[in-house]
Amino acid sequence: MRIFVTGATGFLGSAIIEELISAGHKVLGLARSDAAAQSLVIAGADVQRGSLEDLDSLRSGAAASDGVIHTAFIHDFSKFQENCEIDRRAIEALGDALADSNRPLVITSGTGMGNTLPDQPATEENFNPDHPNPRKASELAGVSVAGRGVNVSVMRLPQVHDPFRQGLISYLIAVAREKGVSAYVGDGLNRWPAVHRLDAARLYRLALEKGLSGARYHAVAEEGLPVREIADAIGRGLKLPVASMSPDEAGKHFGWLAMFVGTDMPASSALTKERLGWRPTQAGLIFDLDRASYR
Fold it and tell me: Which end of the chain is more exposed for a tag (fewer CB within 10 A), N or C?
């Protein structure tokens, strides 16, 4: 198949391109700059010039393809709600080109959208349309385009990592370096799920090839790592002390990250593994943090 990939030159998208091409697919990647276009050509992909906010470029790329994997997202958390709305419009535009066809569209969300009961892991079958997290806009857009005959499924991501980047944890590292201490909130026993970027890339391919319309999948290799263990690993890497912060102290110390750092958000991928035959094989988060370069 010829697959249109948004976020194609990003941390995860670049791994997805490699995975798709290795499996025999052709890739059309979205690029908003000459440098991005050149990197796509080097990777063996064709180029669709445009951006997440250029809706005509999204429609054009999707129309020219047999399927779409949508990973692009603007990671400016100071404008999180605004960026979630941009993502909603992007998904609607992709749906315009895929309506009334059986061509697959895999969109991206977060595992937090599957949380319901306290202390219980998020699951694939849970979704609250009234969830307070603005990222719900992506999944609501998926429901909307499915109503127009689009074969859409949702990939929910935890902390995606390798030795060089680790999702929100990369921001934790930056805060620790700036403040001179690697911190967590309270007892630090709240949990974050994680997956290696190569395992996640393989799951996107499986969802594209085998996924069911309307399904939600969790790219979760590790269901929940205590944030204190993550802070300990950062402390080792940066050779900094590790300390607990009260919820009141956390707001000043972490800034916008405070809303996540003290949150318990484990997630299960049991149904994903059963339905797609996915088995993560790559290194775990703490292993990658321990071999990361902190220079």
Answer: C
Q: Which helix (H) or strand (E) holds 88?
A: helix 80-98
With beta carbons less than 8 A apart as the criterion, state whether 190 and 226 touch: yes
d(CA 34, CA 38): 6
pTM above 0.90, yes or no: yes
Residue matched to tokens 């969109």: 107
Is residue 78 very low, low, confident or very high in pLDDT (cuts 50, 70, 90)?
confident
Collapsing DSSP states into helix, strand and coil, what is residue 38? helix
Please tell me the distance from the alpha carbon of residue 282 to that of residue 289, in angstroms, as a whole number: 13
Query: Once rounded to an integer, what is the mean pLDDT over residues 253-273?
Result: 94
Average pLDDT over residues 86-115: 95
Within the chain, strands assigned E span 2-6, 26-31, 46-49, 67-70, 104-110, 151-157, 159-161, 182-185, 191-196, 216-218, 222-226, 242-245
